[in-house]
Amino acid sequence: MPNVIINDIKVEVPENVTVLEAIRLSGGYVPTLCHMKLDDIKIENNPASCRICMVEVAGRRNLAPACVTPIAEGMVIKTHSKKAVNARRTVLQLLLSNHPQDCLKCAKNGQCELQDLASELFITTNPYMGNKSTHKKDVSAAIIRDPSKCIMCRKCETMCNSFQTVGVLSAVDRAFDAVVKPTFDLPLEQTNCTFCGQCVAVCPTGALVAHTYIDEVWQEIDNPKKHVVVQTAPAVRVAIAEEFGYEPGTISTGKLVSALRALGFDKVFDTDFAADLTIMEEATEFLDRIKNGGYMPMLTSCCPGWVKFLEHQFPSLVEMPSSAKSPQQMFGAIAKSFYAEKNNIDPKDMTVVSIMPCIAKKYEAGRPEINSSDEYKDVDYVLTTRELARMIKEAGLNFDTLPEGQYDSPLGESTGAAVIFGRTGGVAEAALRTAYEWITGKNLEAVEFEAIRGYEGVRVAEVKVGEMTVRVAVSHGLGNTRKLLEDIQAGKLQLHLIEVMACPGGCVGGGGQPFHHGNFDIIKKRTEALNRADRNMPIRKSHENPAIKALYEEYLGKPASEKAHHLLHTHYLEREWL
Fold first, then answer.
1. Do residues 511 and 210 make contact, with C-beta atoms less than 8 angstroms apart?
2. From CA 296, how far away is CA 473, in angstroms rounded?
3. Tens-place pLDDT, residues 265-296
4. CB-CB contact of 378 with 271 (8 Å)
5. In CA terms, which of 132, 167, 254, 339 is 20 to 30 Å from 392?
6. pTM (2 decimals)?
7. Which residues are part of the catalytic machinery?
8. For residue 363, which of 303, 273, 300 has the smallest C-alpha distance?
9. d(Cα 66, Cα 50) in Å, to the nearest integer?
10. All residues at 6 or more sequence positions from 11 whose CB lies less than 8 Å from its CB, including other chains
């Protein structure tokens, strides 16, 4: 192991690491803007384009970019010499000279890495101010792209091209006009963009942000003529507390419910209820395909980013996903039919708001073929976990002192199978818990399917279900999914069930979650929290949820009935590859 000297302290570091990694391993610090590395999911982005991490290395005339300079035996490094700090200040001033000075009204105000670094380096004057490059803003239902705020770190390009393999964003032009944008500068809605939001999750500035509907939701809450209900996704309860200083993986379901009630929502429901409902419909469809020779393997369809990826990149396979809607959309359909009828509410006077870890859910809610009525949307507005935290802070609520609230019935009752929908492998595991008992007629005591748990990009396992061996694949990240589907098309894999989540770790790593800044341990802690929540639930199988049973008895009849199919199922499109 090489011996190096960092800031006058002799340290031993592993071989084949960069200066930046050596500094971090020794407990030191060097700021970065363009560097990104997530070992657990094999993402690395080292363009060395920002030059913020420059350090002084003894014997070298020029400063060295720490993120790409390899360690060598005997190297002597100064991280904060006057020369290095002055170089950083100059680089940062040059970046700021071509950056809009609208921090107070920027969506990333307070969470902008460029802003934080300017404060750290105490940039109060700038000798390089002059003309600025200007670009048109692109506003979609899910993402707002403002290239004028792009600093060419190219993190979004890495996520879009290398990890997700969607291929929408790329660096174009040179020098003063250099920027990251889609081909021909097309709006995102006219591209293959899946709206997964992973570009938003890694963007250090306001160049890529979620399209927020906070003002619209406040207006609905304040409208006395509207009955406003809210649903919360599984992954939100294990992440929202991070926005208030809690440790990652803190389960704050009760405080989450109390916060939403205090904000003024008429009813606070749980998307987990609809996740159990999804299993009823999806498992029924799965068994029907097995018995009657339907399209196999069956793909889960809970993730809207993944669905749009399939429509563009593998249009010949659009019959492969389950026709069951996602839990978000099932909830909206049931809220504006069953719940509305039971409470004598006109669906047009009801507003359904979703709190989601996912930016693609904003896009999904607007898909016309996903709605059960031509007169109104099933889900009216989608807010991310981060956006809900902003609303709680805006309302002046003290998260620490919020009581442990309870979801309203009946659309707030759920099982452990539903809560694990928020992590990779959870949907497949929940489906297997129900399918096992329906196929065998026996009670499943060991409900945790360890064979499909984990963090590998693709996991394939054989699960014994009575006399049948069910081959299951689980994938997270669209790049991993591309390899999986290509293997299926090539005949290399024979499977029965596939679960896909577009984001790293599943919904816990969604584009709308609190920023993890490349720390995959945070995603793991959220995952472990969901598993704990599952273990602590009194009922852990979707088909045993008494509220779900009552819904079928009172309203839907049975899974896959005509009424259930109208409200809870949809179809997908063969989209052009752009």
1. yes
2. 13
3. 999 999 999 999 999 999 999 999 999 988 89
4. no
5. 339
6. 0.95
7. 282, 285, 302, 322, 361, 364, 369, 507
8. 303
9. 11
10. 3, 4, 5, 22, 25, 26
